[in-house]
Amino acid sequence: MGRARVSGEKRCQESTTDALALLIRRSMRLTRTLSSVQSSAAVVDALHAYVAAIDRSATRSKVLLDQISGQGETGDRPTAKLEAAAAFMSGVLQMIQGVGEQINLSALKASIKAARAGEVGAASMQAAAQSRTEVNDRLRALAV
After folding, report:
1. When you count CB atoms within 10 A of the terminal residue's CB, does the N or C end of the chain come out lower?
2. Mean pLDDT per segment of 10 residues, for the chain of length 144 residues?
3. Longest Cα pair distance anywhere in the chain, in angstroms?
4. Which residues form the domain of 112?
5. Is the residue at 18 inside a domain?
6. What is the 3-state secondary structure (H, E, C) of the chain?
């Protein structure tokens, strides 16, 4: 009987050790996932600020374009200026759209990582979704 009791205690200790090792591995995996989600959120924030700066620049360029077109000048020179301004605006808008697509992709990746992290990543997932919404709204506003 004494041997059976020792054997049972040993199995209990082994089960406890295995369960603890599993919890440690999962905790480490969640920590890495959380770190990755936080890094992705930081990238999304930086890209969001970049798009906002481009948006302000595009708005200023549009104002200048409107001023140039409103002067009512005649001849080839004003037309060339308008064409150059329009080409510049087109380039800026393409750049904004490209950055917006990158932000959406980064935010999507952050959302996926946050979803995998469960409750730990819920706030990051919400921030990523909000960033995607804001970027999409701005891109729609700038659509030509």
Report:
1. N
2. 64 82 83 75 76 80 75 62 82 80 78 73 72 75 64
3. 109
4. 36-142
5. no
6. CHHHHHHHHHHHHHHHHHHHHHHHHHHHHHHHHHHHHHHHHHHHHHHHHHHHHHHHHHHHHHHHHHHHHHCCCCCHHHHHHHHHHHHHHHHHHHHHHHHHHHHHHHHHHHHHHHHHHHHHHHHHHHHHHHHHHHHHHHHHHHCC
Domain count, the chain: 1
In-domain check, residue 132:
yes
pTM: 0.43
Question: What pLDDT score was predicted for residue 121?
Answer: 67
C-alpha Rg value of the chain to the nearest Å: 28
Handedness of CA 30, 36, 39, 40 (dihedral sign): negative
